[in-house]
Design brief:
By secondary structure, the chain is mainly beta. About 0% of the residues lie in helices and about 50% in strands. The strands form 7 sheets. It has a 7-stranded mixed sheet with strand order 20-19-22-23-24-18-21, with no helix packed on it. The chain is elongated. The mean pLDDT is about 90.
């Protein structure tokens, strides 16, 4: 058996090309505010591959960046009156290095900025006296109020403390409404950042509640008074011509993130001069952000039991034992909710409470800093 010997082969060696590098941002001569965070973007490429990028500050290595281009990082600006010298360098996988020319940034005092806009409700009507809060990325807080036409201007805001966030809140009809830009936004140094309209929306989780009202024989009842309450809120509406009822927005929690509250539905109607009453016996578990079907509310002739009524009295104190003025006290029965507020010494009195509508329950709440 014979064997064959391979012939000569030619291998061509190709010189490795040096990498390419570009300092995309910032640019030479750019002004930056003292103490601000300067974004740096380094672009680069190589025929073999890049191993790393290096950012130099004042001629010394400031940060080494691994991964794929573009390379992104930040560098803090020094105090005003000086300058900030930056240079970028990349190295490929075989050790070749290339650097950009050094650039110089001019560091100036913070030119500050202004935020303006308008606060409106859900029907786009201006809201006067809304509490405004602008917060920097470092936690500094600046406050203001909207004017009679809903407009606002908050001045002298720092531009060197990261992005700004903005919130507005107001009590409308006794309920808290909120709006704004909590995720942050960039500003115009030395200029005005126009936010446009900030729409205030119901601050608490809510549901749309629907149902039907009938008498004890199953006939639909129009014009019936329907009430829904939880531990803190009472709403009222009237059934329509077909006996249906609708509550467009029923609060289902004391605040965002808190436990959902069961709903209780009751009603009354005048049927041929006779008082009809009733309630949906089972608590209703709401669907937050959606539609909750309460089912059928059945009203029957009221037996007219004699009721001597009663009065609930008490005090509301804070953790230090001081009486709390203006706290909201709610007394709940199986059919209704009765409400009052505490006096200067924290005392309260709720008269004319029924004794034939089941046990009484009491809850207390107070709105402090936008939270209940």
């Amino acid at each position: 058996v014979g064997s064959a010997t391979a012939g000569p082969r030619t291998v061509t060696w190709v010189a490795d090309e040096p990498p390419e590098v570009l300092l995309v941002e910032p640019v030479d001569g750019q002004e930056v505010a003292e103490g601000s965070t300067v974004r740096v973007t380094i672009a680069g490429g190589d025929d073999v591959g890049l191993d790393r990028a290096v950012l130099l500050r004042g001629g010394a290595v400031f940060r080494t960046l691994l991964g794929e281009p573009p390379f992104e990082t930040t560098v803090p600006a020094p105090p005003a009156g000086g300058d900030l010298r930056l240079q970028a360098r990349v190295r490929d996988t075989v050790g070749h290095e290339v650097s950009t020319p050094e650039i110089t940034l001019v560091v100036i005092p913070d030119p500050l900025t202004t935020v303006s806009g308008r606060v409106v409700d859900e029907s786009l009507q201006p809201v006067a006296g809304a509490d405004l809060e602008v917060m920097t990325g470092f936690g500094s807080v600046f406050s203001g109020l909207s004017l009679a036409d809903g407009t606002f201007v908050v001045t002298d805001l720092p531009t060197n403390e990261g992005e700004l966030s903005f919130t507005a809140r107001a009590l409308l009809g006794g309920e808290l409404f909120r709006g704004g830009y909590p995720s942050g936004f960039e500003t115009i140094p030395g200029g005005v950042t126009e936010l446009g309209d900030t729409v205030l929306r119901f601050a608490r989780p809510a549901t749309r509640l629907v149902g039907q009202v009938t008498d004890d024989l199953g006939a639909s009842l129009s014009g019936a008074t329907v009430r829904v309450h939880n531990r803190f809120d009472l709403l009222e509406t009237t059934s329509d011509a077909s006996g249906g009822f609708l509550f467009p927005r029923v609060p289902v929690a004391a605040e965002v993130g808190s436990a959902l509250l069961d709903l209780f539905v009751s009603g009354t109607a005048d049927v041929g001069g006779t008082l009809y009453r009733g309630r949906i016996a089972a608590p209703i578990a709401p669907i937050e952000g959606g539609e909750t079907d309460a089912g059928t509310l059945v009203l029957a002739p009221d037996p007219g039991l004699p009721d001597p009524l009663t009065t609930a009295v008490g005090f509301v104190f804070d953790e230090a034992g001081e009486g709390m003025v203006g706290a909201e006290v709610n007394i709940l029965t199986d059919f209704d909710l009765f409400r009052t507020t505490t006096l200067a010494d924290g005392s309260f009195s709720v008269p004319d409470l029924p004794t034939v509508d089941g046990d009484l329950f009491a809850t207390v709440s107070i709105l402090i800093g936008g939270f209940r």
